[in-house]
Specification:
The relative contact order is 0.13. This protein has 8 helices and 8 strands; from the N terminus they run αβααββββααβαββαα. The strands form 3 sheets. A 4-stranded antiparallel sheet has the order 2-5-7-8, with no helix packed on it. The protein has a two-stranded parallel sheet with strand order 1-6. The chain is α+β, with helices and mostly antiparallel strands. It starts with a helix and ends in a 9-residue tail after the last helix.
């Protein structure tokens, strides 16, 4: 299923990368693209892959080790030993007799197998847990990408809504300016009214250009969080800005939060670290076997035999090596104490993290409630501002209202629409934080 999803995502966005035409991207598609292409997601996958290598490395300690060796030795001066002359028929004398040969060579192989090594066994368990740690870390990385992409996605929406408001205001003010210009040319309006309208029109155009730049910058930020080439033009799906009031509970269970799962897995790893350090107190037992072929003589021994004065013989041995630690100056105890202190510190982090998650949920819950009220009131305020503007336009045309009232009504509508856009954005951000607090960010992908 995941392979099919990856292929589908690749084909979907291959079109985006290969064409300059503007493409429509939903929030789900933006998140899917980020999970497949963002560098953070790729690095998290590499960490999981590296964990497999760590496991293989830990397993190697429990597997047999075979080493081959070879060497050639030349003895220009042979060591002599003092022997009693009785051995050579010369009683009462000491004879200096050299031992060995001028040349010696050896080729051998050694087998070593750990029979008991507590550090190796604990290291293997820790390596498997490390892979689980990186898998959880990958999930946490994905959730961070989901949060960043979603936030940037809604920020683009907000800026575009404000740009749309300014464009509508510009067109409305332009119509008013053209009417006043026509009246002024026919001697029915004052020049000061035309000048005021032109100034207001220029201000709106300046604000519009600034907002266009803000939209571009925010779209670039979204593409960065997605891991998408910045030059690709995109268009967002407006239906993603719908407001659906979520179910709010008084309290939540934070046990399924990825942050806590990661800390719990780290706690397990620290426990293994303590055991691995304490394992230095335990003895180790290894099985060792050696087999070698040795040649000595007066000439260079390689490729030489008895006819050239080189004698070869083989030998083998099998044994057990037991190592029992007795005293190391309290080094192990110090390391164990350090590991235990690190575990105690993590316990405090767990406690503080749980408290912070409760705070995060309550804050997002309060923000959701406030945002819903703000959306309701700002929507009504926009409708009221539109009514005021329409009435003011009518009164101005009949000479019942000054131009100042008309311009103020136009600016009030722009402000009301911007406040409504901000309320929508605040709600969506609070919704993201609510999903995060409940450990349900993946719902944004489904």
């Amino acid at each position: 299923m995941n392979i099919k999803k990856s292929i589908l995502t690749a084909f979907l966005f291959a079109g985006i990368i290969s064409t300059n035409a503007q493409q429509t991207i939903s929030l789900k598609e933006a998140i899917d693209y980020a999970l497949q292409n963002k560098a953070d997601a790729q690095k998290a996958n590499l960490q999981i892959k590296n964990a497999d290598y760590l496991i293989a490395d830990s397993k190697s300690g429990a597997l047999p080790k075979i080493n081959a060796s070879a060497g050639v030795t030349y003895n220009p001066v042979l060591q002599k030993s003092a022997l009693p002359g009785d051995m050579f028929g010369q009683p009462g004398q000491v004879i200096m007799v050299p031992f060995g040969q001028k040349w010696g060579s050896q080729v051998g192989v050694q087998l070593q197998q750990a029979l008991f090594n507590q550090q190796v066994f604990i290291g293997l368990k820790a390596a498997k847990t490390t892979k689980e740690f990186y898998q959880i870390n990958k999930q946490l990385t994905d959730e961070g990408l989901i949060e960043n992409v979603s936030t940037a996605y809604y920020q683009v929406f907000t800026q575009k809504e404000k740009l749309k408001t300014l464009e509508n205001s510009y067109q409305s003010t332009l119509k008013v300016r053209n009417i006043i210009k026509s009246l002024y040319e026919n001697g029915l309006a004052k020049k000061v009214d035309l000048d005021r309208t032109n100034v207001n029109l220029t201000n709106i155009e300046t604000g519009k250009n600034q907002m266009k730049n803000a939209v571009t910058l925010q779209e670039n930020a979204l593409k960065f969080y997605m891991g998408m080439p910045i030059e690709n033009p995109i268009q967002l799906v407006e239906s993603d800005l719908q407001v659906d009031a979520p179910l709010l509970e008084n309290t939540i269970n934070t046990d399924n939060r990825t942050e806590l799962q990661l800390l719990e897995k780290k706690k397990t790893l620290l426990g293994y670290n303590i055991k691995a350090t304490e394992a230095a107190y335990y003895p180790t037992l290894n099985l060792v076997g050696n087999y070698a072929w040795q040649g000595t003589g007066k000439t260079f021994p390689i490729f030489q035999g008895k006819n050239q004065g080189v004698y070869w013989s083989d030998y083998a041995n099998v044994g057990l090596q037991l190592n029992i630690p007795i005293f190391n100056g309290f080094q192990i105890k110090s390391k164990v104490d350090q590991a235990k202190l690190e575990l105690e510190t993590l316990e405090q982090d767990l406690k503080d993290t749980k408290l912070g998650m409760d705070l995060q949920y309550q804050n997002s819950k309060a923000q959701i409630e406030n945002s819903l009220e703000a959306i309701k009131s700002q929507k009504a305020n926009v409708e009221l501002a539109e009514t005021v503007l329409n009435n003011t336009k009518s009164n101005y045309q009949y000479g019942l209202a000054p131009l100042t009232d008309l311009l103020d009504a136009e600016n009030s509508l722009v402000q009301a629409k911007n406040n409504y856009s901000n309320a929508l954005y605040d709600f969506k951000i609070a919704e993201i934080q609510l999903y995060k607090a409940k450990g349900e960010l993946n719902k944004l992908v489904k």
